[in-house]
Amino acid sequence: MASNLGSHEVMQLHEVLTDAIDGINQFELYRPHVKDQQLGSILDKQIQFMNQEYNSMVQALNERGVQESIPYRAPKRTQPKYGLHNPQSQSPNTSAQEMDDRDVASGMLGCQKSSAILKTMASLECADHNLRSAIQQGSKNCNEMAYETWQYMNQNGYYQVPTMKQQTTNTVAHSYSTTQSGITGQNNFDRQEFGVPAFTM
Q1: Which end of the chain has the lower number of beta carbons within 10 A, N or C?
Q2: pLDDT reading at 123 higher than 80
Q3: Per-residue pLDDT, 130
Q4: Using 50, 70 and 90 to split pLDDT, how confident is the model at 200?
Q5: Whole-number mean pLDDT of the chain?
Q6: Can you tell me the mean pLDDT for 1-21?
Q7: Is 197 exposed, middle or buried (0-12, 13-18, 19+ CB in 10 A)?
Q8: Cα–Cα distance between 71 and 142 in angstroms, integer?
Q9: Which residue(s) pair with 161 in the sheet?
Q10: What integer is the mean pLDDT of 64-70?
Q11: Cα 130-8-117 angle, rounded to 5 deg
């Protein structure tokens, strides 16, 4: 009897769930090193969410029912700080006791970035629509958690954003222009065939 899941999606789900366990364990290891209350709140919130998402994914895999994907509540957006302002030199710690809030936040950010990429790749291998949607939402969740952590780092000077001269930025931006091809009747026919409304000029 053939399985109702493809081999690629089974192995990708294995990778996603293992990565989720590793991420939760990694965040738990970070917790005792957190000193800043704001970072601690972000970490606790993300650990709780990661556990909920993991449980939901396991249920979706084992029960094969329609599981509602859990969206991460997007963090409040802050205006990014651009430019380098006396950035501190960095080097590896010689012991775990040296770990500080910057180290913790950086580790959290790296974990969520990697998980977002892994889940995006896994969703591309899923034939089952419900599992695919759940993994896609998981990738978006990691993206949101990563941005939440990045905002904290940026506001506290832990993650500074280098910039170019305005002239260089403008030169790059203005090196692209929109396409000049209009929408033809054939394009309208193709769009209608795929259920996309046709544009009228």
Answers
A1: N
A2: yes
A3: 83
A4: very low
A5: 87
A6: 84
A7: exposed
A8: 10
A9: 82, 83
A10: 67
A11: 75
Residues 39-59 have a mean pLDDT of 94
User: Structure tokens of 195?
Assistant: 């259920």
Of the candidates 138, 123, 111, 133, the residue with the CA atom closest to the CA atom of residue 27: 111
Match 């974990």 to its residue by tokens: 111
**Range 164-192 average pLDDT:** 77
For residue 126, give the nearest of 1, 28, 10 by alpha carbon. 10
| Distance between CA atoms of residues 46 and 142, nearest Å | 10
* The two structure tokens encoding residue 158: 């832990």
How many residues in the chain?
Answer: 201
Both structure tokens of 144: 């949101």
Q: Are 126 and 9 in contact (CB under 8 A)?
A: yes
Residue 194 main-chain phi, psi, to 5 deg: -100, 15
Q: What angle do CA 120, 50, 21 make, to 5 degrees?
A: 80
Q: Which CATH superfamily is domain 7-82+100-169 in?
A: Ferritin, core subunit, four-helix bundle (1.20.1260.10)
Q: How many helices (H) and strands (E) does the chain have?
A: 6, 0
Residue 6 tokens read as 């493809």
Tokens of 98: 């040296």
Query: Which pTM does this prediction carry?
Result: 0.83
26 Cα distance to chain centroid: 17
User: At residue 161, what are phi and psi to the nearest 5 degrees?
Assistant: -110, 105
What share of the chain in percent tops pLDDT 70?
A: 87
